[in-house]
Design a protein that fits this description.
With 406 residues, the protein is α+β, with helices and mostly antiparallel strands. The protein has helices at residues 50-65, 70-80, 173-179, 184-200, 215-222, 248-254, 272-280, 288-309, 316-326, 339-345, 377-387, 391-397, and strands at 108-115, 128-136, 143-147, 153-156, 167-170, 206-211, 225-229, 233-241, 244-247, 259-263, 266-270, 330-333, 354-357. Helix 3 (173-179) packs across helix 4 (184-200), helix 5 packs across helix 7 and helix 7 packs antiparallel against helix 8.
C-alpha cells in the first residue's frame, strides 16, 4: 500500500508554510541560502545535483522490485535523498486536504514544465513552452501525459511576488510573468500552476521544472535514445559542419561552412544533441506546436524506457556516469512528502506504462487574429476526467485523444 504522509502545509500562505524547505538554484533570481523549515540554521550545500540524486532513487526502486529487501532499498533511498531541498513550485495550486492532499493514497497529479534555458538568457526572462500534466490514477500502475498548447489563451491571475497585475495572454507567458522581478523559477511555476488550476480545476500533488538543455548530457550518459520522426523536418537551430551537428549561430561566428540538418522520417537512435534538437523543432512541422508537444512527450518516455530497459538504473557504474553527466536539469516539488515515500508510491510505473495524450485532436484550434487558441470541449472534458480520476474510461470512450507516437 502507498505510504501515507502529511503533504501540505496548513498555513493560508503556502509560500511561507513551515512544511516547506526553500532552496536556491544557481543563476536564478530570488535565491539565497537554504534554511530548514521553522529554524534558522543553514543546511550544508548538497554535493550532488538534484537530478543525479533522483537517478539514485529510481535505481533503488527498480532494484527493490527486482528482489532487493524493502528495508535495504528504503535505506538506499534515504541516503540518496537525505539533504535534497525541495522548492515550492505550486503555491496555492497544491491539493487541499479535502482533495486528498494529506495522503499519497489515491490519484496523483503532477505539473511538468519544460524550459529551454540558455546561458545568454536572463533567468527571469524564460517562458515555459512545454507544459505537461502528468496524471497517475489511484491504482498507481499507469501514467498519462497531457500537453497544454503554449498558445492557449489564458486568464493569468495577479501575482504579488513578481508584481504582475494579471491579464489575458498566451499561457506560456505565465511562467515568465511569475519569474520576473525576483520571482525566479519558483515564482514562474507557482503562477503557471495557479493559471492551470483556474482553467482546468486540477490541483496538483507536485511539480517539476525540466531544463531540456540539461538533458543532453543525461541522454549521452544513457548512450542514446530511440525516437521516431513522423515527417522530415529541417532544423532551425543546428546545421552540419563536416558531417557533425553544430549550432548555426556558432558556425557563423566561427566562419564554418555548414549544411542544413534534416531529421529524416523514420525511427532511429539519437545522441543527446540530435534528440534535443529534434524535440525543439516547431516550424516546418505539419501541426506546429502540437507535433512538438508529441515529440517532447516521446523524448521523456524514451529516456525512461532506455534507463529501465537497458538496466542502467540497477547498475551502480552506469548510475555514477549519469550522476556526473546530469548537472542541475531538474527542480522538484513533491508537495511536502518525503522523497522516498513519494517514489515508493510510484514504484510500479515504468517507461512502458506512460500513455501520451493530445489536446484539441492534435491540431491548431484558434484564429489567426491574435495567434491564440482555445481548448475544445473534448479537451476540457478530458481535464475534468483527470480531476475526477476517470481518465482511463474517458480514453477508452474517446480514443482520438491518444497520441499516434509510440
Amino acid at each position: 500500500m502507498p505510504v501515507q504522509t502529511s503533504r501540505r502545509p496548513t498555513s493560508p500562505d503556502p509560500v511561507s508554510g513551515s512544511a516547506r524547505v526553500s532552496a536556491a538554484v544557481p543563476g536564478q533570481p530570488g535565491g539565497g541560502g537554504r534554511r530548514a523549515a521553522g529554524g534558522s540554521k543553514k543546511r550544508s550545500r548538497r554535493k550532488d545535483p538534484l537530478w543525479a540524486r533522483l537517478t539514485l532513487i529510481f535505481g533503488a526502486v527498480l532494484m527493490m522490485s527486482s528482489g532487493v529487501a524493502l528495508v535495504g532499498a528504503k535505506a538506499v533511498i534515504g541516503q540518496a535523498t537525505g539533504d535534497i531541498a525541495q522548492r515550492n513550485l505550486l503555491g496555492g495550486a497544491g491539493k487541499s486536504g479535502a482533495e486528498g492532499g494529506d495522503s499519497l493514497d489515491g490519484p496523483i497529479d503532477l505539473l511538468l514544465l519544460g524550459v529551454d534555458a540558455r546561458e545568454q538568457w536572463s533567468a527571469d526572462d524564460v517562458r515555459s513552452d512545454s507544459i505537461i500534466v502528468l496524471h497517475i490514477p489511484a491504482s498507481h500502475d499507469q501514467a498519462y501525459m497531457i500537453s497544454i498548447p503554449r498558445d492557449t489563451e489564458a486568464q493569468i491571475p495577479p501575482f504579488k511576488k513578481s508584481g504582475y497585475r494579471g491579464g489575458t495572454e498566451k499561457i506560456n507567458a505565465a511562467f515568465q510573468a511569475g519569474a520576473r522581478n525576483g520571482g525566479g523559477w519558483e515564482g514562474g511555476a507557482q503562477l503557471m500552476a495557479q493559471t492551470i488550476k483556474n482553467m482546468t480545476g486540477i490541483s496538483f500533488d507536485g511539480a517539476a521544472i525540466i531544463n531540456f538543455g540539461g538533458f543532453k548530457h543525461v541522454i549521452d550518459a544513457l548512450g542514446s535514445v530511440r525516437l521516431c520522426v513522423s515527417q522530415d523536418v529541417k532544423s532551425i537551430h543546428m546545421g552540419l559542419v563536416n558531417g557533425k551537428p553544430k549550432y548555426i549561430a556558432n558556425a557563423k561566428l566561427d566562419g564554418d561552412k555548414w549544411e542544413p540538418l534534416i531529421h529524416k522520417k523514420g525511427c532511429r537512435e539519437m545522441t543527446g544533441a540530435l534528440a534535443l534538437d529534434f524535440a525543439r523543432q516547431r516550424y516546418g512541422l505539419k501541426n506546429s506546436d502540437y507535433d512538438r508537444q508529441q515529440n517532447q512527450q516521446q523524448l521523456l518516455k524514451a529516456m525512461a524506457r532506455k534507463a529501465t530497459d537497458s538496466g542502467t538504473m540497477s547498475n551502480p557504474l552506469k548510475l555514477q556516469k549519469i550522476i556526473k553527466a546530469a548537472g542541475e536539469s531538474l527542480v522538484l516539488d513533491t508537495g511536502g512528502a518525503k522523497m522516498d515515500d513519494f517514489i515508493f508510491t510510484m514504484r510500479g510505473i515504468t517507461g512502458n506504462d506512460l500513455v501520451m495524450l493530445r489536446t484539441n485532436g492534435g491540431t491548431y484550434n484558434g484564429t489567426a487574429a491574435n495567434s491564440r487558441e482555445a481548448l475544445n470541449q473534448t479537451t476540457l472534458d478530458m481535464f475534468k476526467a483527470v480531476k475526477e480520476d476517470r481518465l482511463a474510461q474517458f480514453v477508452f470512450e474517446n480514443p482520438s485523444v491518444l497520441s499516434t507516437r509510440k
